[in-house]
Amino acid sequence: MMFRVNIPEKGNQLVAVNAKGKAQWRLSIAGNADVESAKGGFAVFGSNELRFYNAKGGLVTKRKLVVQHEAPMFTLWKAADQKLLVRMNDRQLIVNPATLKTLYEFPLDTADVEYRYTGNGYLYRISESSSQISQFVL
Question: What pTM value is reported for the model?
Fold first, then answer.
């Protein structure tokens, strides 16, 4: 099991514990980081950097992501097809968790339009004002 803690003087950390509750490893992370499990490990996104770690907390790969303005919190989700959905303040990305390469990129939701990635390259654009749903194969 892995959990996030904020320890005074040590900052934000991810801590993995075994079934008996003994800490197996600790990893310092940014205070604005978001964490999501992914196939074979987990991803951490914060401070303009996306990192993928194996299940033992070892860094596998990392990637800088340039954003227009630093967000207070970044958002990271696992998509239906096990890819990572990275929501930044200027766009959304679908990323291969093993390589961190961008597979697809699309705009952010607005007050009127919502974008939903449903996996396997399918993106839906939902417009409230026109009551329309559009499907795109990316």
Answer: 0.80
Residue 97 burial by Cβ neighbours in a 10 Å radius (0-12, 13-18, 19+): buried
Query: Are 42 and 35 spatial neighbours (Cβ–Cβ below 8 Å)?
Result: yes
In the chain, what's the furthest Cα-to-Cα distance?
A: 55
Could you tell me if 113 and 103 are in contact, meaning their C-beta atoms sit under 8 angstroms apart? no
Which of residues 65 and 102 earns the better pLDDT score? Answer: 102
Whose CA is closest to 72, among 34, 35, 22?
34
With a cut of 90, say whether residue 18 has pLDDT above it.
yes
Bin 30: left if φ > 0, else alpha if -120 < ψ < 50, else beta.
beta
Q: Is 123 helix (H, G, I), strand (E, B) or coil?
A: strand
**Helix/strand/coil percentages in the chain, nearest 5:** 0, 55, 45
Q: Evaluate whether 135 touches 127 at the Cβ level (below 8 Å).
A: no
The answer to whether the CB of 55 falls within 8 A of the CB of 40 is yes
